[in-house]
Amino acid sequence: RKEVEQDPGPFNVPEGATVAFNCTYSNSASQSFFWYRQDCRKEPKLLMSVYSSGNEDGRFTAQLNRASQYISLLIRDSKLSDSATYLCAVLLRSNDYKLSFGAGTTVTVRA
Amino acid sequence: EPEVTQTPSHQVTQMGQEVILRCVPISNHLYFYWYRQILGQKVEFLVSFYNNEISEKSEIFDDQFSVERPDGSNFTLKIRSTKLEDSAMYFCASSEGGAAPYFSYNEQFFGPGTRLTVL
């Protein structure tokens, strides 16, 4: 089983729609979780750290389900500029150094 | 807003040549990392560096790779004898570590990357 797995998509949604997708992780001891956004051929940009059961930042909501070992990202009121690949990343321990990335979920927001 | 910078943005080299990729991490950060992303694949961890030594490395980071912090600002990745399969985007990242607030201290911020093409 892969360490971090994501639905690759693509998710094609109209502007203003809500889109949500999940990321599963294999190691139940994982401590820290992040969502990054990556535009084509650019660097991953930190979108959100996922705290305890979940947190919200504007139109973005991240949730963590430790029992089922997944995190989710929900984007409300999608904008054209939200079109990107969203990467899930996991740290095994709080003092771990190695971010394990998923392969990414592609979201395309259409006008 | 402070950011990680990397040079060059694109490096083309012949197989067997040595390359050095350079990074300037965010100034108050204590932990430094190199990741790579082969075209169309996921981002992969190579190595982490703290207190002037390697903290962790992946199986990708073999004897052909080395890292160094030659001065107070730069962090370099050297590939001694490049292979075709080393062609990838190489990202440097840094994180605060230390006594930062709990949730932010392990957030890693990435530089814009160096695209390495080995011919």
Q: What does this molecule look like?
A:
The complex is a heterodimer of chains A (111) and B (119). With 111 residues, chain A is an all-beta fold. Chain A is 0% helix and 55% strand. In chain A, strands 2, 4, 5, 9, 10 and 11 form a six-stranded mixed sheet that branches. Chain A has a five-stranded antiparallel sheet with strand order 1-3-8-7-6, with no helix packed on it. Chain B has 119 residues and is mainly β. Chain B has strands at 5-7, 10-13, 19-24, 31-37, 44-50, 53-57, 65-68, 75-79, 88-95, 109-110, 114-118. In chain B, the strands form two sheets. In chain B, strands 2, 4, 5, 6, 9, 10 and 11 form a seven-stranded mixed sheet that branches. Chain B starts with a strand and ends with a strand. Classes of the chains: A mainly beta (111), B mainly beta (119).
Give me the Rg of chain B, rounded: 14 Å
- The helix/strand series of chain B, from N terminus to C terminus, equals EEEEEEEEEEE
- Give the SSE order of chain A as H and E letters: EEEEEEEEEEE
Largest sheet of chain B: 7 strands, mixed
Shape of chain B: globular
Structural class by helix and strand composition of chain A: mainly beta
Rough outline of chain A: globular
